DNA sequence: CCATTATATTTGTACCTACAATTGTTGTAT
DNA sequence: ATACAACAATTGTAGGTACAAATATAATGG
């Protein structure tokens, strides 16, 4: 659906504005789909993101600032987000022995098992989402999006 | 910058996932730029969005549900958002005389004047953002984004 | 060794947001 | 006319988030 219809605005707008609105609306849309898919598993988009970051460490622990710089949506309060995951026993945190300012955060077995269950659901969702445009379009979209951030 | 570098992940991912992440990251990016630009004027992205919706009414009042369905990022709590705007005297709300369940919300003179000051700033921002890719690319991006929501 | 600065995380606080329940009003069927 | 459903907005509440200040530890320079 065209963005003008979606936002029910009559006055037509410059392409640059349409681009900005389109981007935000589409990102909201996919974020909502993701949140909905994750809901049955009891975790939020952000928490899922952190869990995947932790898994990506492949056993090596991560500290808070590492997690923060890798998050898709940066947030000011990673401490409390990790707290939530630790409460659910999806990750564990211990004070780093070599540098007691840092904490070492690891995904737990329970966390890995949860991700294993979630993976196919998210894969399918991402696939279904992307396949509305063809492969070549996906590639050029990705390139253009990179450009827009530079 | 490529999304993998940005999120500092080593393992390469399918294009569909790259698309999803790219979208969210890029939308976050432009939202932050907008928020920063609006900060000096003392309003948030959402409040700015509502003000523009109200201006788009061209004198005709809007009610809450109208505003809600036109917002770029839908939210559950438009009442309190409009409260904030009313506190700042940027809009006014009166109970609709013909249907006392509804409220009629109008942008005030002060609101219009504020928008007039903000307009060129946002126009420039949107332009600078979009011009990183060429016109043809903007058009195809907009088309593809529409498709992704269908 | 001590004071200062830098680093890493945590906490306090105020605000924002989602969701559900509530209120007030209108429309409709009996 | 009255009860009931539908509608529009508001409010309570719990949880999320940003920002700044505080805490704790480590590194550095005199």
TrEMBL record, chains A, B:
Q: Select a single GO molecular function from the record's annotations and give it.
A: DNA-binding transcription factor activity
InterPro entries, from UniProt? HTH_MarR-typ (IPR000835), MarR/SlyA-like (IPR039422), WH-like_DNA-bd_sf (IPR036388), WH_DNA-bd_sf (IPR036390)
GO BP terms: namely:
response to stress
Q: Which residues form the HTH marR-type domain?
A: 16-150
PROSITE patterns per the UniProt record, alphabetical: HTH_MARR_2
Gene3D superfamilies registered for this protein in UniProt: Winged helix-like DNA-binding domain superfamily/Winged helix DNA-binding domain
Q: What is this protein called?
A: MarR family transcriptional regulator
